[in-house]
Design brief:
The structure holds two protein chains of two kinds. Chain A is mainly alpha-helical. In chain A, about 75% of the residues lie in helices and about 0% in strands. Chain B has ten helices and five strands; from the N terminus they run αβββββααααααααα. The chains are: A mainly alpha, B alpha+beta. At the A-B interface, helix 1, helix 5, helix 6, helix 7 and helix 9 of A face helix 3, helix 4, helix 7, helix 8 and helix 9 of B.
């Protein structure tokens, strides 16, 4: 377990470094950057030169790259050109909001997906199964932004129950207000994912329920509920953990769209605004945070898999 | 369910040709603005030039009367250049008076073409890298697969936004970025298949007979792994349809005059309460396209894939 963790961690750091480098090269290699001749046109030459020196635009590519990497190691993400604040502080603010949104969405994905999938697999009613499967397949194919609009149309416009967007009401409000604002974006993000997970769990559960160890458990006199939860579901949780880890990539994309749609002040919107403003340090930090999220998702999936099934740690040599 | 996918994709490709565009579609944007689905309207040609799109048209003595843009209008016979032409807006119109059925069909074709091109690029690179990794020495293989891992962990949505900010959004950029960020998952699959096939007798015999690596891949390995690769390619195709829609929803996809489903949804976002149909139809179209492609992938094959959201 610890060996697996160490190896995976090393690989994860390597991958994160690779993505960071890729993003840095992409930003730096493209013509028309901040502080080039065109951008500083009309400034007195001395002032332009001072700006270039101040922001390090006069130094060669390799020096800037190494400087940036060393800064990363120190936890210094640079200074936002657009918002004129340290990138680290901006990311820290936004990251909390995004984790609240995506963390809850992932939790809903797992709980709802496993629950519906298991019920659909163990139910004897063909019609119930067909209905649940049909709805899940449909919801799974909705784009998350459209899901969001649908929810807004129903729960904010037709029925005035929930706020359309933002994270807090103008007059402040406490925890309850925050939760009310959280429901719609979270549902828009989580429902398609939960639908996909439920289809997956249902199919895997069906396979598991037909396997010999389940028949053996039944033969020993275990009740149907215990067979489903303690025996069949347990064997399904391993691939589900992997699945959730892999869906982080989609959650990162989804959070950009959903945060822009619902004006949620998180990483996705920060990234979107930074990109529109071509705020290079902020953009780099956002891509890096996204990559770290994907890598950490895979890492957590491996840890969860090893906890579910000790053989996993041995097999992954 | 494969025929369903073929029918839906085929319809998406030829749809714009099946439903003729209204000839005078752009002539009266103000009159045809936000008409509800199934609205029965008439196009009244005017002698002074141009057309007027009028609903509940009725004959009066010496002229016509009806509703246009929320107020009553009437035309005298000498103003009208010909008989009013009836027209039904099946799915309604958008804020610029354009027929949504036509917009939707063209958007669907756009989605399918972009996803097809992007996945084609990804397939090309993925097969190249995957087969090279599967057939080459361990050191080369490790290098190729580690770079594949880096790209797999790259948040592709952010990379696209980054490229859109740097190069400006365009249809070509969507295809290129989709291709460049989708190939790693295909390369992994091709490598795994190559390694498991490599020691089979048929492949060994071909190698013993002096088959060159490119020929080995094209004639012996690829045919054997086509079913597996096709499944993953189909799922990537459905992901790409949603990715493209999400990008154009954010306004960084294909710029006009290209018609993208996501952009139509975005244009209906502000009028959700008054003209729900603008956002509804393109969203449903995306769902139908994705559902049709996924339905072609049978259940056991689907199990190996994570759910995704764009």
């Amino acid at each position: 377990m610890s060996r697996l963790l160490a190896r995976r961690l090393a690989a994860a750091i390597l991958v994160a470094w690779g993505v960071a480098t890729l993003a840095f090269v992409l930003v730096q290699a493209v013509p028309g950057r901040a502080f080039d001749e065109l951008a500083l046109q009309g400034l007195p030459p001395q002032a332009a030169e001072r700006l270039r020196v101040l922001f390090g635009a006069d130094r060669p590519f390799a020096v800037r790259y190494i400087d940036w990497l060393l800064g990363l190691l120190r936890g210094d993400l640079g200074f936002s050109l657009q918002l004129r604040r340290p990138v680290g502080a901006l990311v820290a603010e936004a990251l909390g909001n995004t984790i609240a949104l995506t963390g809850l969405a992932l939790a809903v994905q797992v709980v709802l997906g496993v629950l519906v999938g298991t019920l659909a697999a163990v139910t004897r009613s063909r019609w119930l199964d067909l209905a649940a499967g049909g709805v899940a397949a449909l919801v799974y194919s909705f784009p998350s932004f459209w899901m969001g609009l649908l929810l807004v149309a129903v729960f904010s416009l037709a029925l005035p129950w929930l706020p359309v967007s933002q994270m807090r009401s103008i007059d402040g409000g406490g925890m309850g207000d925050l939760l009310r604002h959280l429901i719609l974006p979270c549902a828009a993000l989580a429902l398609p994912l939960a639908a996909g997970t439920s289809l997956y769990v249902r199919d895997e559960m069906r396979v598991a329920l037909a396997r010999p160890f389940v028949a053996a458990a039944r033969a020993r006199g275990a009740g149907e509920g215990r067979v489903a939860v303690a025996h069949a579901l347990r064997s399904v949780l391993l691939p589900v953990a992997q699945l959730v880890g892999l869906s982080i990539q989609g959650v990162v994309a989804g959070s950009v769209v959903i945060e822009v749609l619902f004006a949620w002040p998180g990483m996705g919107r920060l990234a979107y605004d930074a990109l529109l403003a071509r705020d290079e340090p902020l953009v780099l930090a956002c891509v890096l945070v996204g990559a770290v999220a994907v890598v950490v998702g895979g890492l957590l999936a491996d840890v969860a898999s090893a906890l579910c099934d000790p053989r996993f740690a041995v097999e992954q040599r | 369910m494969k025929p369903l996918a073929a029918i839906v994709l085929g319809l998406a490709l030829v749809g714009p040709f099946l439903v003729p565009r209204h000839a005078a579609d752009d002539d009266d944007p103000a009159g045809a603005r936000y008409l509800a689905p199934l609205t029965q309207a008439h196009v009244v040609p005017l002698r002074a030039g141009g057309n007027r799109v009028v609903t509940s048209l009725a004959r009066t003595s010496g002229g016509w009367t009806g509703q246009r843009a929320g107020s009553e209008v009437s035309f005298r016979d000498e103003e009208v250049a010909g008989a009013p032409v009836p027209r039904v807006y099946l799915l309604g119109t958008d804020g610029l008076g354009r027929d949504l059925l036509d917009r939707m069909l063209r958007g669907a074709r756009h989605s399918v073409l972009i996803a097809g091109a992007g996945v084609a690029v990804a397939l090309f690179i993925g097969i190249l890298v995957g087969a090279a990794a599967g057939l080459s020495r361990p050191a080369v293989e490790a290098l190729l697969m580690r770079s594949t891992d880096v790209l797999l962990a790259t948040p592709r949505f952010l990379v696209y936004l980054l490229c859109a900010a740097l190069f400006g959004p365009s249809t070509l950029l969507v295809i290129v970025v989709v291709g460049l960020t989708t190939w790693p998952s295909l390369a992994r699959l091709v490598r795994a298949s190559t390694r498991s096939l490599r020691s089979q007798e048929g492949i060994l015999a071909a190698r013993a007979a002096g088959c060159s690596p490119p020929r080995l891949v094209m004639r012996h390995l690829l045919p054997a792994m086509t079913p597996v690769v096709a499944v993953t390619a189909a799922l990537r195709f459905s992901d790409t349809i949603r990715l493209e829609a999400a990008l154009s929803f954010l306004g960084v996809g294909s710029p006009p005059p290209a018609v993208s489903l996501g952009a139509i949804v975005a244009s209906g976002r502000g009028v959700l309460a008054d003209a729900w149909w603008v956002a509804a139809w393109p969203g449903l179209t995306i769902a139908v396209l994705v559902l049709a492609v996924r339905s072609a992938v049978s259940r056991p094959e689907r199990l190996a894939e994570p759910p995704s959201v764009a």
